[in-house]
């Protein structure tokens, strides 16, 4: 064998032995490290387990807290979306542009003080002679416009037709100015005053190309006690578009209200609410949470805590439609005067029934039945008792006036009448109420 090949073989053999020795040493060292590591882990296994368990539970708690926070935020968000507060806010935003403030101005005398040197007076007489001074006197120096009152109203059509109370616009020699929610003012004219209810309709002429937001009318017959309502108006004739929230406290109330000029008016079948209604709110809308008008604010009880009244919108609708179609308010009427019967009246007057209405003359010799009226034509006479109208009993919950208001001109109604102890049915054709 050649010498070179022998040398290579010896070197290769030496190299292989050296590699095997190094590999074996490394393997043994690695296994030793693993054994030592496992021994240390086993020795401190409680601490190691506690550390990782703590980290695990902390991570789980953070995740749960995050999920709880997200869930809570979602619940709160849903509660906000469906809370009463959100309904109120949305309703007010939607309706505020259609609610107006009415300001009443009038030319009143303007006076100035002056002194007349020829008119002097000594209040001490001879005790202090010469102690004279001029007595101030007053004289008229032209006239000036002054705000003498105010109220509220709301648009019922885009062309500027608005509803308010009759007692708000019952003066003739005055000017009526309407302020919309955007601060603009408009001259208003009275279109019609209702001969039956305390409502009136006024008109604001829009500019060319201008139109007004107006309110949707609801159904006051579906109201329930405890239902939430919103009142908006010109509180105290100073704070425009003031919002108050309350509930329906009572339905079909009958109250006697003063008109501010010494007179009184019976408000029949009205809505009672604890929503704050102040002087100046008169004529403003009473809204449900959808923003629909369910009443017209009309009166408060002076000195009370949140006892206000509103005319139900269903009794106002016919007046609005009448003005839209004829330009005036035309109401159906029977043409008789009457007194409601109750248990006390039955006993006092020896009547045979404790409900219905007794046809009776007025206090100032006013006739019980108006000549030529529908009641007169139907043969109703004084001392007759009307018990029912179209099968509806007349009692403390249902009045004759409220039923007639809900009828139409030309409509035939059936009255159940007790006349001289005999019951009979009488057909009456309703006619338009006379202007007087």
TrEMBL record:
Keyword set includes Oxidoreductase? no
Residue ranges spanning the membrane: these are 21-44
Keyword terms of this UniProt record: Hydrolase, Membrane, Protease, Transmembrane, Transmembrane helix
Q: Which GO terms describe its molecular function?
A: serine-type endopeptidase activity
GO annotation, biological process: proteolysis
Q: Which InterPro entries match?
A: Chloro_Bact_Ser_Proteases (IPR051201), PDZ (IPR001478), PDZ_sf (IPR036034), Peptidase_S1_PA (IPR009003), Peptidase_S1_PA_chymotrypsin (IPR043504), Peptidase_S1C (IPR001940)
The organism sits in which domain of life? Bacteria
Say yes or no: keyword RNA-binding present: no
Domain PDZ per the UniProt entry, residue ranges = 340-421
- In which family does this protein belong, per the annotation? Belongs to the peptidase S1C family.
Name of the protein? Protease Do
């Amino acid at each position: 064998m050649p010498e070179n090949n022998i040398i290579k073989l010896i070197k290769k053999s030496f190299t292989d032995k050296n590699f095997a020795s190094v590999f074996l040493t490394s393997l043994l060292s690695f296994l030793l490290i693993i054994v030592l590591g496992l021994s240390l882990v086993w020795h401190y296994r409680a601490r190691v387990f506690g550390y990782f368990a703590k980290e695990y539970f902390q991570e789980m708690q953070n995740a749960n807290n995050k999920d709880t926070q997200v869930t809570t935020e979602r619940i709160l968000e849903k509660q906000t979306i469906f809370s009463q507060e959100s309904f109120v806010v949305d309703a007010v935003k939607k309706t505020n542009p259609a609610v107006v403030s009415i300001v009443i101005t009038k030319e009143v005398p303007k006076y100035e003080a002056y002194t007349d040197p020829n008119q002097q007076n000594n209040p001490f007489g001879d005790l202090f002679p010469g102690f004279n001074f001029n007595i101030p006197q007053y004289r008229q120096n032209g006239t000036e416009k002054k705000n003498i009152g105010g109220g509220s109203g709301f648009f019922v059509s885009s062309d500027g037709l608005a509803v308010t109370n009759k007692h708000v616009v019952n003066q003739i020699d005055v000017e009526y100015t309407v302020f919309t929610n955007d601060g603009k003012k408009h001259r208003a004219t009275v279109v019609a005053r209702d001969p039956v209810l305390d409502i009136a309709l006024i008109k604001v002429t829009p500019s060319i190309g201008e139109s007004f937001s107006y309110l949707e009318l609801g159904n006051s017959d579906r109201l329930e006690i405890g239902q939430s309502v919103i009142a908006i108006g010109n509180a105290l004739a100073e704070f425009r578009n003031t919002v108050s929230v309350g509930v329906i406290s009572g339905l079909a109330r009958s109250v006697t209200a003063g008109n501010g000029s010494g007179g009184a008016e019976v408000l029949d079948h009205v809505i009672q609410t604890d929503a704050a209604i102040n002087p100046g709110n008169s004529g403003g809308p009473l809204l449900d949470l959808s923003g629909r008008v369910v009443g017209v604010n009309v009166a408060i009880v002076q000195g009370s805590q949140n006892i206000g009244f509103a005319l139900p919108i269903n009794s106002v609708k016919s007046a609005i439609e009448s003005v839209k179609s004829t330009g005036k308010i035309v109401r159906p009427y029977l043409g008789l005067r009457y007194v409601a019967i109750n248990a006390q009246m039955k006993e006092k007057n020896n009547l045979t029934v404790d409900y219905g209405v007794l046809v009776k003359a007025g206090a100032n010799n006013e006739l019980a039945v108006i000549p030529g009226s529908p009641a007169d034509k139907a043969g109703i006479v004084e001392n007759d008792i009307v018990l029912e109208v179209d099968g509806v009993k007349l009692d403390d919950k249902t009045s004759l006036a409220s039923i007639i208001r809900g009828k139409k001109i030309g409509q035939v109604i059936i009255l159940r009448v007790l006349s001289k102890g005999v019951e009979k049915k009488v057909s009456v054709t309703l006619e338009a109420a006379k202007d007087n």
